[in-house]
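I am still getting used to backbone structure tokens and would like to learn alongside you. Please make up or recall a protein chain and show it to me in full. Would you write everything just below, so we can both look at the same thing?
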Amino acid sequence: MVGDREPIVNHTETITAVTTVSLVSLGILQIILGETISRSVALTANGIDCIGDGFVSGIVWAGLRFFKRPADKRFHFGYYKVENLASIAATILMFLFAGYIIYRSYNQLVNPQVIQLPLVGAIVAFTAALVAIGLGVYKIITNLHTNMSSVKLDAFNTIKDGTTSFLTVVALLLSSFGYHIADPLIGFIIAGIIVTIGFAAMKEAGYILVDACDGDCLMYSVLIKTYAERVKGVQAAQVVRLRRTGPVIQGELEITVPGEMSVSELDKIQTEIIRISSEKISELERLTITAVPLEK
């Protein structure tokens, strides 16, 4: 499974690295401009958000490096879940940056300062928006082939960065017309967006880490049970346990077969169930089947 995905994972890893460098660079530029020249909290907040999102991409990049490692004596099921840990680590970092943005926005609200050179800041923020949205959309398209939660988080987080950059442009343009309250208000909005996306990402990654089965997982359980019961020789399929591990699903199935069935016949049934299930569910990497003799 990892071998089949490795070229795509390598490409995704490269895009994530490019995102890290691009967002951190744009973030530093916006913070310098916002803190020393423009005095815009929205521009500073967007710069902090850019750097934070760059760090998020960096954490995801590190997770992808671990993801490619094969299973070994210590990690029998591979390193798939490292990318979920990377998602949670990235989310915690997002929360910390959101807290600082709220603090700066509050100070600007109670002690407003006139924004200097708002048009220059708007041009920088607009450039950051175009870069972020372009990279984010490209990562979403690439992730259709890998279905990694950390990469999905990174992609939407990058697009979110582009959205907040556009909001920063709006704040700076309004400030240039004398609406100075727009600057701290946009700062609060940026922080709210960060927190909302962060909670959703942490919930999804947490569910996977504790082997929760919901949504598609529940549907796949019903489908596997149905596929198994259609195979000749299977009397019933009682138990289906599935868990998502990174971008793949691993499962256990218990079937009832006649007690006089030979090992060879049972092997053919197990092979057929795995074949059908894998063809219908592309994310299914491993299905362990246990046979129980039919009680007479």
Notes: The domain at 2-209 is CATH 1.20.1510.10 (Alpha-lytic protease prodomain-like). Residues 2-38 form the longest helix (37 residues). The mean pLDDT is 83. The chain has two domains: 2-209, 216-293.
